[in-house]
């Protein structure tokens, strides 16, 4: 929900309802927030019933909506996109250089320009005759900027350290800035310029540009005007001093088992002084995302003499990129070695990236905190230039929720081919999936099932994709069974598996009387991620049918974290039905799938998929919290709630 005023007749209704305060943080739990609605130019003219809000792991919010106050005319709750740019908009924008946008450009003969008709898409940087400029921060008189309603910022521009911020946009009718358009996002960039995420305004107005930006605020001390050729799209030069891509999405995975904090008194001592560090890094241990320790580490840990740890704690997401001192423990002095500082950034998804540099001496090495993770029994044999691992793996039994699989169950095994699929599998019984009946299926090595054709795609669609095929995603991501793990399948029409399926469905759906006549089990057993060959991920997709009923079970065992895009759930043609398992779209959290459920059986998700009635989340068990609204909610996806859906004031 928006946290600032939205103009009336926005969001598909008359009175646009917005949050009267900021969203909570994770540690705040459930909070109560006031709700306001605007009328004409008065932002908080209406006051609706308060609602409860909670911040959830995975960077989203849930709201306990109530019926708005009856005296408010046509009230609707508004929605704004909650996205973080995957590419820094300071280096990925469109140039906007139209002289008529100048605040001193007066319109004659009523030949007004109108940004309402522009298809805005992405971020923009403003120029005036090739010179860098910016939006005005105070009201502009009617008729200027080539339009009748000139649009300006209702406040100052952000500073560099503020990152991406939201700013109100206003225009004048009878007074100064007495009406408001939709808010926009703004960012201050290295090099003394700003970028703006423009959206369709509420009126037939136009965004203004100051001809000379020296009288406005700038993101740093210098006010030098920058002359840049007019081009349609800017890409960063290789020599740029600021990261052209957010390091949260542009890092090197550092997965050296010897770096773990519990690797003590190693027979061979490692030293990061000789490493050619370049760019940003994210720490892993056996494919599990970890961080640097930010408390003192015992000497002779992390495969080195003086283990390096982070001083002054890790930053928060809102802190952006920070600089932290690094200490090495030696001679019973936690900071005997004061190594070179490094840059650190907290990323959405609960992980950190580090810009490692050469330490101040040998033998010092950066540590990876091994607390709260599971480590395969491994003997590590480090060498000076390369690291070789001799692994004595402990074979873990499959979770009890798994149906029989593997050679012992008579499974058919997929070829060990990266991005491969099974051949077409003719089903022994038709399977009804939300109104469409299928008699064939494909088991794709990258963790998903398709019906009409095989799929080699290792980057999952974002559900709802509103596409042209039905997809079941047990864990759709970049898996690689050519190196490790087995993908197999088996279908049953009699025997103990049908008895078990009958019992499971009647347990999970106690209001039904069901007898299974067919079961299809697809299993991904200890399959590694692409380029992370020491990871193991295990899960099952089970299809069950009988009579006019069809069901889908997803069973999760040990799931390694990953930096690859991931998706778990299902999607149908045109997304008439779809579901995304909470947190399954974030590779840093997917190890929690084994502790999540919608049927109070940890690691299991169950859905009725014949089409009637439409699925709903039952009582979700997640880490012993069965009523947490972060995992017990209904999706509200109506395009007309968007802040750019409005009635024009033409």
TrEMBL record:
Record keywords: Disulfide bond, Signal
Concerning InterPro entries, the annotation shows: Alpha-tectorin, D8C_UMOD/GP2/OIT3-like, NIDO_dom
- PROSITE patterns per the UniProt record, alphabetical: NIDO
GO biological process, any:
cell-matrix adhesion
A Pfam family: D8C_UMOD
The NIDO domain, residue ranges = 474-612
Put simply, this protein is called NIDO domain-containing protein
């Amino acid at each position: 929900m928006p946290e600032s005023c939205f103009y009336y007749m926005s969001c598909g209704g008359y009175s646009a309802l917005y949050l009267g305060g900021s969203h909570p943080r994770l540690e705040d739990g459930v909070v109560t927030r006031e709700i306001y609605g605007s009328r004409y130019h008065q932002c908080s003219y209406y006051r609706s019933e308060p609602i409860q809000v909670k911040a959830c792991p995975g960077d989203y919010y849930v709201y306990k909506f109530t019926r708005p106050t009856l005296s408010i005319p046509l009230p609707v709750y508004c929605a704004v996109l909650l996205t973080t740019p995957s590419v820094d908009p300071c280096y990925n924008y469109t140039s906007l250089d139209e002289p008529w946008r100048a605040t001193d450009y007066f319109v004659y003969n009523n030949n007004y320009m109108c940004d309402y008709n522009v298809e805005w898409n992405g971020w923009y940087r403003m120029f005036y005759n090739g010179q860098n400029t910016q939006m005005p921060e105070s009201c502009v008189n009617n008729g200027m900027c080539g339009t009748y309603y000139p649009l300006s910022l209702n406040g100052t521009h952000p500073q560099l350290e503020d990152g991406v911020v939201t700013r109100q946009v206003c225009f004048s009718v009878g007074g100064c800035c007495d009406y408001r358009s939709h808010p926009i996002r703004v960012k201050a960039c290295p090099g003394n310029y700003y970028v703006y995420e423009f959206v369709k305004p509420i009126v037939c107005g136009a965004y203004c540009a100051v001809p000379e930006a020296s009288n406005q605020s700038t993101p740093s001390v210098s006010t030098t005007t920058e002359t840049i050729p007019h081009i349609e799209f800017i890409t960063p030069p290789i020599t740029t001093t600021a990261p052209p891509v957010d390091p949260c999405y542009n890092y090197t995975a550092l997965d050296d088992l010897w770096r773990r904090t519990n690797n003590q008194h190693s027979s061979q001592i490692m030293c990061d002084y000789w490493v050619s560090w370049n760019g940003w890094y994210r720490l892993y241990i056996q494919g599990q995302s970890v961080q640097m320790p930010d408390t003192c580490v015992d000497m002779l840990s992390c495969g080195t003499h003086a283990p390096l740890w982070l001083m002054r704690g890790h930053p928060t997401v809102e802190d952006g990129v920070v600089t932290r001192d690094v200490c090495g423990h030696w001679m019973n002095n936690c900071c005997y070695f004061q190594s070179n500082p490094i840059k650190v950034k907290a990323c959405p998804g609960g992980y950190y990236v580090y810009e490692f540099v050469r330490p101040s001496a040998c033998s010092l090495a950066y540590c990876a905190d091994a607390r709260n993770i599971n480590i395969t029994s491994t003997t590590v044999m480090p060498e000076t230039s390369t690291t070789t691992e001799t692994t004595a793996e402990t074979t873990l039994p499959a979770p009890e929720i798994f149906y029989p699989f593997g050679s012992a169950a008579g499974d058919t095994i997929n070829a060990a081919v990266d991005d491969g699929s099974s051949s077409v599998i003719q089903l022994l019984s038709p399977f009804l999936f939300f109104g469409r009946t299928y008699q064939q299926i494909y088991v794709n090595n990258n963790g998903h099932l398709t019906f009409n054709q095989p799929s080699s795609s290792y980057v999952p669609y974002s559900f709802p994709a509103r596409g042209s095929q039905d997809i079941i995603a047990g864990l759709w991501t970049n898996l690689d069974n050519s190196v490790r793990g087995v993908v197999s399948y088996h279908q049953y029409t009699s025997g103990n598996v049908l008895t078990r399926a009958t019992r499971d469905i009647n347990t999970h759906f106690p209001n039904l009387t069901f007898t299974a006549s067919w079961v299809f089990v697809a299993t991904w057993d200890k399959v590694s991620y692409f380029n992370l060959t020491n990871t193991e991920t295990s899960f099952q997709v089970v299809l069950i049918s009988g009579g006019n009923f069809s069901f889908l079970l997803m069973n999760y065992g040990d799931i390694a974290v990953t930096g690859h895009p991931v998706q778990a759930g299902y999607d149908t043609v045109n997304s008439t039905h779809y579901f995304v398992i909470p947190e399954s779209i974030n590779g840093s959290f997917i190890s929690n799938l084994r502790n999540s459920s919608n049927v109070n059986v940890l690691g299991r998700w169950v859905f009725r998929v014949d089409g009637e009635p439409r699925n709903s989340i039952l009582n979700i068990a997640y880490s012993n919290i069965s009523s947490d609204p972060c995992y017990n909610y209904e999706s509200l996806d109506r395009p007309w709630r968007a802040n750019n859906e409005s009635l024009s004031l033409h």
